[in-house]
Amino acid sequence: EEAVGDEDGGYEYGKEDFAEHACRYCGVSNPACVVRCNVPSCRKWFCNSRGNTSGSHIVNHLVRAKHKEVCLHKDSPLGETILECYNCGCRNVFLLGFISAKTESVVVLLCREPCLNVNALKDMNWDLSQWCPLIDDRCFLQWLVKIPSEKEQLRARQISAQQINKVEELWKTNPDASLEDLEKPGVDDEPQPVALKYEDAYQYQNVFAPLIKLEADYDKMMKESQSKDNVTVRWDIGLNKKRIAYFVFPKEDNELRLVPGDELRLRYSGDAAHPAWQAVGHVIKLTAQEEVALELRASQGVPVDVNHGFSVDFVWKSTSFDRMQGAMKTFAVDETSVSGYIYHHLLGHEVEVQMVRNTLPRRFGAPGLPELNASQVFAVKSVLQKPISLIQGPPGTGKTVTSAAIVYHMAKQGQGQVLVCAPSNVAVDQLAEKISATGLKVVRLCAKSREAVSSPVEHLTLHYQVQHLDTSEKSELHKLQQLKDEQGELSSSDEKKYKALKRATEREISQSADVICCTCVGAGDPRLSNFRFRQVLIDESTQATEPECLIPLVLGVKQVVLVGDHCQLGPVIMCKKAARAGLAQSLFERLILLGVKPIRLQVQYRMHPCLSEFPSNSFYEGTLQNGVTINERQSSGIDFPWPVPNRPMFFYVQMGQEEISASGTSYLNRTEAANVEKIVTTFLRSGVVPSQIGVITPYEGQRAYIVNYMSRNGALRQQLYKEIEVASVDSFQGREKDYIILSCVRSNEHQGIGFLNDPRRLNVALTRARYGIVILGNPKVLSKQALWNGLLTHYKEHECLVEGPLNNLKQSMVQFQKPKKIYN
Amino acid sequence: DDEVHVRQKVAELNPLEVASFDQELRAVVQESMEQRKLELRGRPTLNMMIPMNVFEGSIKDHHGRVVGGESGDEALDEEAGGSREVQVKVLVKRGNKQQTKQMYIPRDCTLVQSTKQKEAAEFEE
Ligand SMILES: [Zn+2]
Ligand SMILES: [Zn+2]
Ligand SMILES: [Zn+2]
C-alpha cells in the first residue's frame, strides 16, 4: 500500500475523456451517430445503434419519454440542425420524412400531416409518392444519422431493454441521473459482488466503484480517528534544511500502519510564551525504535524550544482511490485506453487467440542479469509472444530477474517506452534496480510526498535526476531550487518560472527513458497523463486490487504481463463489506478463472531443500524444484540444537494460553514470546548475527509484545534484540531471512485459529527462511485444520515435532485432532 | 492494427419486448397525427421557398462524376466499381435562411430510386 499526497492539484481522473454528446444509454460518442433530444428539460444525446434492443437508442428514448424533437450534432454532415418540416416548421420527428424534387438531386424534410397533403404541393415539381419517413424500421434513416461501427458498438455499454425502461423511469423524477445510479446499492445494502465476466466496462465500473468507495470511506474513518495528544517531540533539521520532528505515534497493535509518505498534522495549543501553532508534514522514516520522522512542509514559527504537549492527527488523502476510480472511467469511455483485444479479454468476452508478431531474440537472458534457468527462459519466450500473460513466481524462484529480462526484451522491440509497476514501493525499487543493471535507461517516478524518503535506487528517481542534470540550461532551475531551499519559498514570479522549468525538465528526462518504473497508483500521476505505454509489466500483481492494476493499463496498453503468486497473500482490504464482495480478488486470479494459464517458475533458490519440501507439495503440486543444495544451505560453525542434524527445522510444541491484547482487537501469547526470546538468544550465542534472524507472527498484538519482552528480558545485550526484526507474517511477504522463528499464538481449543486458517498465510510464513525455521504453536489446536494437520504430521514423521527445554528437546507425543475441513 | 475478433452472443430479442415497443411506437405516431389534425383547423398554406440555384447540377456519385443528367451513362459508373452512394443536396432552413448541404445517400434508397426511374423514363422519351 502506498501513501500519496495531495499532489494531483485538482486533477480530475477520467473526466477529461468523457464526451458531453455521448449516447446516454451506451456511451457511443461519434458525432455522425448521435442526435440530441431537443426537449428543453431533456437535451440528452442518443445514438442510432440498436444494441440489444429492437429500436435504435434515440428511437427508444423518444418513444419511452414521449419526446419528439431532435437536433443533429455540429460535427455531423448536416451540422447543428433541428430537424423540422421545410414547409410548416413542424418538429415532430414521428411525422417527418424526406421527399425529393422530381428530376433533381434536392431533398427536403416534410411533415406527413398536413404538408404532404397540401394540394398546391402536388402542382410543384416534387415526388410526393416517394415520401421517405425519418424513422424507418425503428431506426433513424441511416444515411442521416449513421449507425456506429461494429467495433464501436462492441466497446460500448451493452444496455438492455429493461435497463432502458428503468432509467427512463428514473429520469422522469431526476433528469440528471446516470445509469450508474440505477445500480447503486442503498446505504444498508450489501454491495454487488464482483463477477467473472462483465458485459462492458460500464458494468465493470458499476461493480467496482462502490467497493472502492466503501474501502476509501473505511480507510478515511479509521485514519482520521487516530489523533493522539500529549505527544513528546524531538527536533532536528534535515539536509534540505527542513524541520524534522521525531515522536512516537501510537501503533501498539491497532490496524493503522504508517508508511513513509503518509501525511500527519502536528499541533501545539500554545502557552504564555508561544502562540498556538500547527503544521503538516510527510513521514520520511520510521525508525527501528518505532519513532516517526516527520518532515514539516513549512519551517516558519515552529516552536522548536518546546518538546511536550503536542497533538498529532492523520491527514487522509483520497488520491489513490481517486486514481482507481479515474482508471475505471477511462477504461469505459476512452476507446484508446487499452487495445480492443485486452478490453474484451479483461471483461471475460470470448476473444479469438492473438499472437504478438515480434521477432524473438536469439537468447532470452539479458546483460547484467544471472543466467536464466529453463522455466525462466520459457516464461520470457512465451510472454513476448502474447498480448496477455501471467507469470506465477513461487517464493525464491527469481521472478524479479525474469521480469527484468522480459522488460529488457520488450524495450528492445522498439514499441516505445515500457511501463513497469508493482503495488509496493519496495518491489518497484527492486525491479528498477535489476532493469537498470541490464543497461536500459530507467526512470523511477516517486510520489512527490516520498521524494524525501530515502530509496536504494535514488540515482534512478526522477526528482534526483532533475536535481543532478548537468547542463548549463538547467543552471537556472538549480539556482531557483537553491533559493527555494534556503528561503523556504520563492516570489510568485520565480515560483512560476521554477515550476515551468521543473516540469519541462521532468518531461525531458522521462521521455528519454526506455523504462518508467512506479507503483500502480503512481501510474496515475498527472506527470504521466500524456504518456502512452503499449507494454506494461506489473509485478506483485496478486497483491493489488483490480482497480489498482487498471491504473497502469489504461495508458494505451497492447501487451500486458502480470507477475505474482496467487498461492501467497492477496491485497489487504480493510473494509469487511468490500472484502466479502470480492475486492480482495486480484485481476491475476480472475484471469486464471477465465482460463489464462499462468506460466510457473519452478526452481527455487531460497530455501534449504528440507524447508521447501512441504510448501512445494502443499501449495505447488510438488512442482517446486530446488536450485540450491543442502551443502549450500549448511550453516557451518553454527551450533544450534536442531533435533535432527542436517534438517534445520522443528515445530516447538507450546501449551501456553492465548490472551486478547490491550486494544481488544488482537492476540498475544506470553509463553510463546518467552520461548521466542530463548530461541533468539540461542541463535545469537551460536554465532548468528541479528540481521540474519526474523521473528514473524500473524498477530500485531504478539508482535508488539515480543518486541517489548525481548528488550526487557533478553539475556544478552539489549541492543542485539533491538536489531532483530519482528514483523507480521503479512508484512514479510516478498522478503527473506536466514533464520525464521514463527510464533502462532492461538491456543484456545474452543475457538478457531483465525488468521492461521488462510493457507496462503501459512505458505508465506513457511517460505521466508533460507537456512532454518522454528515454529512455535499448539498442535492440539492447529491440527483441527487440515493443512496444519498435514504440516504437523510432516514434522512428526521427520522427528521434528519436539517439546521440553531448548538444550534438551524431546520428540513430542502430543495427540493431533481430526481435521475438520479439507482445503483445496 | 487493433483487429480483434470477439465471439459474440447472438443478441436475442425478446419477442414480447419487441411487440410492446412496436405498439408504443405506433401509439406515438398515431397520437402525433391526431394531435396535428386537431391543431390545424383550416387549410395549411404552402410556404416552400426554394432558392432557384439549388437546382443547378445533378446527382453525383462519390467521385464527383455526373450520374444520369446529361450523360446518363450508368454502365460506365458500374464498371468503375460502382459507387453505392449518390450525392444529394439537403435543403434546410436556418431561421428564415435556406441552406443546402451535400449528403451521400444509398443508391437503393427509395428517394433517389424514384428520381432515377423518372430520369430513365424521361431519357427514353
Ligand atoms: Zn428527451
Ligand atoms: Zn447508444
Ligand atoms: Zn409540415
Your description of this structure?
The complex is a heterodimer of chains A (824) and B (125). Chain A is of the alpha/beta class and 824 residues long. Chain A has 24 helices and 34 strands. Chain A is globular, with a radius of gyration of 32 Å. In chain B, strands 2-3-4 form a three-stranded antiparallel sheet, with no helix packed on it. Chain B starts with 5 loop residues before the first strand and ends with a helix. Chain B has a domain at 52-124. Chain B has three helices and four strands; from the N terminus they run βαβαββα. The interface between A and B is large, with 68 and 63 residues. Bound molecules: zinc ion (3 copies).
Annotation keywords:
heterodimer; A: 824 residues; alpha/beta; Elongation Factor Tu (Ef-tu), domain 3; Rossmann fold; seven-stranded antiparallel beta sheet; seven-stranded parallel beta sheet; 24 helices; B: 125 residues; alpha+beta; three-stranded antiparallel beta sheet; 19% strand; flat; binds zinc ion
The overall pLDDT average of chain A reads 90
Oligomer: heterodimer
How many beta-strand runs of chain B? 4
- Largest sheet of chain A, described in full? 7 strands, antiparallel
Cross-sheet strand order for the largest sheet of chain B? 2-3-4
